[in-house]
Design goal:
The complex is a heterodimer of chains A (114) and B (111). Chain A contains no helices and eleven strands. With 114 residues, chain A is mostly beta strands. In chain A, strands 2, 4, 5, 6, 9, 10 and 11 form a seven-stranded mixed beta sheet that branches. In chain A, strand 5 and strand 6 form a beta hairpin. Chain B is mainly β and 111 residues long. Chain B is built from no helices and eleven strands. The chains are: A mainly beta (114), B mainly beta (111).
């Protein structure tokens, strides 16, 4: 059971480039979400989804797009990378409102924008 | 706007000490409070609390929720160097579709 898989683990981008961070889960979880973690700021929510075809914005959505065409996948797209998007990105999933084990997190993607 | 505050921000203790980490929240339509431990990579789940006054325990770790005070504590007894980590508190609201995190408490346990 792989859980939540994120790729790539590390990425360096130049300012203005675009890229997609991949997230896949094999637990048939309804809920998926993306967070970024910056020093001293905890994890902040970027976008989230409560099921295939349904997405919504979190606290810091600007500069990012998401889509949820399948239950398993929830990619995060950076449209035009900026140095302010240098961060560690985590994808997480859970089985929904009756969850008793919290969210499961992927191992993260460390992104540097130069 | 939902808000979660953790204290202290960082803490250094000696092995064998007992520590108490605090989490307070101001949210609309509270559902649950969760504690996570983060070492080098992804946060790992410790506890989920939904009912006030019921302690959850796992080995040397325990946690309790006080819905009247809108807060929770995480206790670690007989600390070990392996307890060194960032401890994150998060809250869910409504249908629990997302987590709102505090900034975390960085715990360092020294010999």
């Amino acid at each position: 059971n792989a859980g939540v898989t994120q790729t790539p683990k590390f990425q360096v981008l130049k300012t203005g480039q675009s890229m997609t961070l991949q997230c896949a889960q094999d637990m048939n979880h309804e809920y998926m979400s993306w967070y970024r973690q910056d020093p001293g700021m905890g994890l902040r929510l970027i976008h989230y989804s409560v099921g295939a075809g349904i997405t919504d914005q979190g606290e810091v959505p600007n500069g990012y797009n998401v889509s949820r065409s399948t239950t398993e996948d929830f990619p995060l797209r950076l449209l035009s990378a900026a140095p302010s998007q240098t961060s560690v990105y985590f994808c997480a999933s859970s089985s929904g409102p009756r969850v008793d084990g919290g969210y499961t997190f992927g191992s993260g993607t460390r992104l540097t924008v130069v | 706007e939902d808000k979660v505050v953790q204290s202290p921000l960082s803490l250094v203790v000696h092995e064998g000490d007992t520590v108490t980490l605090n989490c307070s929240y101001e949210v609309t339509n509270f559902r649950s409070l969760l504690w996570y431990k983060q070492e080098k990579k992804a946060p790992t789940f410790l506890f989920m609390l939904t009912s006030s006054g019921i302690e959850k325990k796992s080995g040397r770790l325990s946690s309790i929720l006080d819905k009247k005070e809108l807060s929770s504590i995480l206790n670690i007894t007989a600390t070990q160097t392996g307890d060194s980590a960032i401890y994150l508190c998060a809250v869910t609201t409504g249908t629990a579709s997302k987590l709102t995190f505090g900034t975390g408490t960085r715990l360092q346990v020294t010999l």
